[in-house]
Each structure stands twice: as structure tokens, then as C-alpha cells.
Amino acid sequence: MKTASTLEFALVGLLRQKVQSGYDLRKTFTETAMRHYSDSPGSIYPALKRLQARGWIEAEPKDSRGREAFHLSQEGVAALVEWLSRDLTREDVVFRVPELMLRFAFMDGNVPRSTPIRFLEQFEHEFGIYVAELRAKFERDSFKKPVHTGLLAFQHGVEGMEAQLSWAREARRRLEEDVR
């Protein structure tokens, strides 16, 4: 079976929190930073139908407004936990950081505390290697004259990634401290 999309996992994560209708889910996407996953009915409702066909969600009876709400099935919970618990790869940190942050956001209450700590350790390791490679390339190229906007944009990207790496270290420290 084809793996679920990031949008589908976002819906599963939100439905794990509480029973919601498609309208409620669209509202969450519209009103939060999750908007880039799509608040379009043309994306959300077909994704809900796929999740229902997969057996990950089940429909509640329609309410007085005619809205159908959904809740997560045991299969959906298992799929969510598996997704949240996956090891990180080099490709993840190079191409899928927004998806990684979505996974991280849904970890509390769904997986043991050791899972987000392991996630952050893996993120630090893989992302740290990648950022060090980019920093080295920037340092080699930064001596070229004249300074050009492409190089300055590259610097912005490297420094932004270094900030993400710093965040991961601090987040892991705080989670580990919380466990003690």
C-alpha cells in the first residue's frame, strides 16, 4: 500500500487530539502555521476519504449542521506511532525539515518521552553534518570578490540552519532535564 502523505499524517495527528469534522480541520490549517499543508477542501476531503478507506479513521454520525466528524481508529493510532517513531535519514534533514517538525509536534502523548529525545539526537547528528558541509562551502566561497547576492543568500540559509541546530540542542537538553 502506498505510504500516507504528509497532509494525511497531519490530519491523523490532529484527529488523535480530538474528534473533528473536515470543516474543523480546515479551520485549524487556516488559523495556524499548518496552512502550508493545505486548507483547501479539494485536498482535505479527498485525504479524509483515503484515510477512511485505509481504515485509519472512522466517521461519526453527522451532526445537526450535517457535518461528519472523524475519529482515529486503532489502525490510525498505530500508523501515527510508527510515523512518529521512524529514524531520521540524511534525506529527511536535507529535504523534509517541515515534515520532521510536524512529526516532532505530534510526539507528546503519542510516544514515550525517549522517542523525541532520540529524534533530536538523530536530528542533531544528521543535520549537524549537513550544516557543517554547507558552512565549509560558504567559507571557501566567501573570499571571492566581488560579494554577490547569491552568496549572501547562501549565508542566510546556512545561518538559518545553524539556528535550527542550536534549537535542537536546546530542545533535547530541556526534554532530558524534564525526564530527570
Write a brief caption for the model:
The protein has about 180 residues and is mainly alpha-helical. The protein contains eight helices and three strands; from the N terminus they run αβααββααααα. Helix 2 crosses helix 3.
Task: Draw up the topology in text.
Elements: H1 6-17, E1 20-21, H2 22-31, H3 41-54, E2 57-59, E3 69-72, H4 74-85, H5 90-95, H6 97-105, H7 114-141, H8 149-179
Antiparallel strand pairs: 1-3, 2-3
Helix pairs in contact: 1-3, 1-4, 2-3, 7-8
Largest sheet: 3 strands, antiparallel
> For the CA atoms, what is the radius of gyration?
20 Å
State the total count of DSSP E strands.
3
Mean pLDDT: 91
Span from first to last CA? 41 Å
SS summary, helix count: 8
Percentage of β-strand residues: 5-15%
The percentage helix is 55-70%
**Helix and strand sequence:** HEHHEEHHHHH
Major β-sheet strand ordering = 1-3-2
Unreliable runs, pLDDT <50, ≥5 residues? none
Number of domains: 2
Shape: elongated
Q: Tell me the structural class.
A: mainly alpha
What does this structure look like?
This protein has helices at 6-17, 22-31, 41-54, 74-85, 90-95, 97-105, 114-141, 149-179; strands at residues 20-21, 57-59, 69-72. It is mainly alpha-helical. It has 2 domains: 6-85, Arc Repressor Mutant, subunit A (Orthogonal Bundle); 97-179. Strands 1-3-2 form a 3-stranded antiparallel beta sheet. Helix 1 (6-17) crosses helix 4 (74-85), helix 2 (22-31) crosses helix 3 (41-54) and helix 7 packs antiparallel against helix 8. It is elongated. The mean pLDDT is 91.
